[in-house]
Amino acid sequence: MKIKIKEWIKRYGWAEVISLMLTVLSSWLAFKLTNSKITTALIGTWIGNIGYFGTILIGDILLAQKQLRSIDKPYSLTTFYKNIRALLVEFGIAELFDSLFIRPVLMYYLPIWMDNLSVGVVLAKLLADITFYIPAIVSYELSKKKLRNFE
User: Fold this and answer.
1) End-to-end CA distance of the chain
2) How many CA atoms does the CB half-sphere of 52 hold within 13 Å?
3) What confidence tens digit (pLDDT) does each residue in 34-77 have?
4) Alpha-carbon span 131 to 98, nearest angstrom
5) Within 10 Å of residue 13's Cβ, how many Cβ atoms?
6) CB neighbour list of residue 43: distance below 8 Å, 6 or more residues apart
7) What is the 3-state secondary structure (H, E, C) of 16-27?
8) CA 53 → CA 39, 69, 92, 103, 141, distances in Å?
9) Which helix (H) or strand (E) holds 73?
10) Of 23, 118, 120, 148, which sits most exposed with the smallest number of CB within 10 A?
11) In angstroms, rounded to a whole number, what is the distance separating the alpha carbons of residues 60 and 5?
């Protein structure tokens, strides 16, 4: 199990760091510009997601390129579509519930309940991540042999 946890930290760790920074920064900026809690929750959710999935996708592309280079094959548009398909399988269900319901609701209410925007946003992100990672990791483990081998 230790090996799996290290693999998951390697896969998701940097994406989480980048997502957290972008979530807090974009939430703060959205609130300062709009003074709207709903806008703040939505902007924080979506900008954090862009940072998270962008980081994961870049990592997957680099890994696929490395696999293909080892057998003298180029990275192609078809390979890119395979990367996207693998991400959809890994995150699809988890992301649907997370982005459309769980995370925005937590990002709206927790800053109010905590009476602190930054603390509420960070706590909301951490709580939402728990419900996000359970189905995402299960999907990743079930799909990685079939969808992530580009050789």
Assistant:
1) 27
2) 20
3) 999 999 999 999 999 999 999 999 999 999 999 999 999 999 99
4) 8
5) 12
6) 26, 27, 29, 30
7) HHHHHHHHHHHH
8) 21, 24, 12, 15, 18
9) none
10) 118
11) 18
